[in-house]
Amino acid sequence: MANYTISLMTALAIFCATLSLLYGVYKRRKLRQNPRQWPLPPGPKPEPIIGNARHIPFDFGWLQFAEWKKSYGDIIHLNALGNRIIVLNSYKSCIDLLGQNAIYASRPRFYVVAELMGLAKLTPFLPYNDELKQHRKFLHSTLKKSAVVRFQPAEEKQMKWYLSTLAAEPQNFLQNIRLLTGKLVAQTTYGVDVKSADDKYIVLAEKAVNGVSSVVTPINNLWNAFPILEYIPDWFPGAGVKTIAHEVREIVSHMVPASLEDVKSRTASGDCTPSLASAALESGNYSEEDIMWAAGSLYFAGADTTYGALVACIFAMVKHPEVQKKAQAEIDRVVGKGRLPTFADREQLSYIDCVIKEIARWKILVPLGLPRSVLENDYYDGYWVPKGATMLPNAWAISRDETLYEDPERFWPERFEGEAGNNAVDPFTYVFGFGRRICPGLHLADSIMFIFLTTILSTFDISKSIDEQGREMEPQETYVPGIIQCVISLLHTTRARVQLATI
Ligand code: HEM
């Protein structure tokens, strides 16, 4: 009995010693990670084991994150199954942290997108490494403000094509915007003239982009914690994401290399249509591998976003006829009625610039940006930002911040006019992301929005549809869950303002 008591005491002592040793190791590790011992940013109370996994909304997360701002402030911490997520709800925190600081320039590991879909080498999914720097060098040199000027004649030409479709088949205006953006991106990237919506560039790319957009949501990123997904049978609940992933992989592994091969064989046979890919090949500054993936990225990152931006232009004009009239008056005054607007008119179309800014703010296309990952432990605004955390910039919350914009829900381009307007935060400084990962397609997207809006407004009136009782129908806003938020159906009518044949 005595022996038994001693051994129990010894066991207890060993247990306590082990516990205090483990606690010591844990404390030392915590101290090494967070020497200042500052707290994590606040957030909803985590549940045992799963943390905040049940709190993170499946879709439209930016709305919930903005709501939480009222209780927890600009910076919110969530812990989902060990994955730390930090939401930045203010312009200042996004600029301060994601602005130029290299430690915030990486991306989290996108297991589904990178490994299952085979997209690890596309620019948006690369971590912050030498390969990314090469991609960005190439993209910057070909898409910077002064460089995109050379795509303007092609953009003006494609807009004429779009006008002809608007006159001939107005009911297909959405499909034709899709085709227009596909044409512009394919032409810019590969020098290909896409002829119809059935073209492989449009059909396959759209399928792949939709697949990616549907899985890159905060909740889907949780799959990153479970690479075991690969071994789960396709029929298992929740494994539907695997089927999408395999389809995308099929398309991408064929399309990305084939598109570059196409450029090479056309160049060899004397076709000199300029494109980003042909310019990069000619320069000899980049490896074929880098050109192939950086060029492939443009379709993925550019087509759907630009499409969304153009649909948002039409949506805003249907909803706000008073803005449409004012914009048309400016175009008529500067351009007249005998020709179409060109980029040369832009400097004099200051109200149009305000309208474009307001559309970008009011209909945020990528409301949570693309997630970033922190490379080093950091401290900000009294809080610890742990290494490895996923950062989500809530661009939607910025666009609705009443300290930045008066009556933020209102569509009101005049907020950017005059001296007060010059002091208002320009939406282009956050809707395209930040710092070292800012969208390289910003200037291209801006120029396409300009030529689209001015060309259409100079030639057409856009108005609400009329129902059988002769009443105006309000356009409905319906969105599909995903990283890109685009109005998916739009009821409206268009009426030509001028004889198209004469211009
Ligand atoms: C209105 C249209 C567009 C919007 C709102 C938009 C928005 C964004 C955003 C928010 C990011 C993430 C930036 C960050 O992490 O800070 C991004 C990245 C990117 N965008 Fe865009 N974009 C648009 C059009 C385009 C176009 C037209 C192209 C190219 C033709 C393009 C190419 C890219 C690429 C390659 C990246 C990845 C950059 C990187 O990870 O380093 N985007 N875009």
Automatic annotation (TrEMBL):
Cofactor(s) required for function per UniProt: heme
Coiled-coil residue spans: none
Sequence intervals crossing the membrane: 6-26
A Pfam family that the UniProt record links to this protein: p450
InterPro entries: Cyt_P450, Cyt_P450_CS, Cyt_P450_E_grp-I, Cyt_P450_sf, Cytochrome_P450_fung
Residues reported in the UniProt entry to bind heme: C439
Localization: Membrane
Gene Ontology CC: membrane
Gene Ontology molecular-function annotations: heme binding; iron ion binding; monooxygenase activity; oxidoreductase activity, acting on paired donors, with incorporation or reduction of molecular oxygen
Keywords, in A-Z order: Heme, Iron, Membrane, Metal-binding, Monooxygenase, Oxidoreductase, Transmembrane, Transmembrane helix
Pathway where this protein functions: Secondary metabolite biosynthesis
Highest taxon above the source species: Eukaryota
Family membership noted in the UniProt record: Belongs to the cytochrome P450 family.
The name this protein goes by in its record: Cytochrome P450
Native species: Botryobasidium botryosum (strain FD-172 SS1)
